Amino acid sequence: QVQLVETGGGLVQPGESLKISCTASGSLFSNRGAFQVVDWYRQAPGKQREFVAKRYEYAPSVGDRFTISRDNAKNTVYLQMNDLKLEDTARYYCHIAWNGLHYWGQGTQVTVAS
User: Fold this and answer.
1) Which of 47, 70, 79, 91 is deepest in the core (most CB within 10 A)?
2) Average pLDDT over residues 53-70
3) How far apart (Å, rounded) are the C-alpha atoms in residues 1 and 3?
4) What is the predicted pLDDT for the residue at 32?
5) Which distant-in-sequence residues (6+ apart) come within 8 Å of 114 by Cβ?
6) Average model confidence (pLDDT) for the chain?
7) What are phi and psi for residue 84, nearest 5 degrees?
């Protein structure tokens, strides 16, 4: 019913940029409003999963370095990440909460290392 597939992760050096994608599919997204509330979380090793970005809101830790955008025609949500830092290393997940249920993708790994 709901599929969220993240792609685009990889290994980058501090200060570099990376853009990851989340393609949404399933009957839930016949409701165009649902696609607009897909957001991003991340989880670093040994830490709890944390919020990263949604429409009009970003975690303080990412500030204006990250930008969320959407391509409605492709049902794809992007996360542009600039000036990446070591502490941005994590598995990044797209997520939607809808009618009291939570759906997650499998995640894509982003590693920032010098």
Assistant:
1) 79
2) 96
3) 7
4) 78
5) 13, 14, 86
6) 96
7) -65, 145
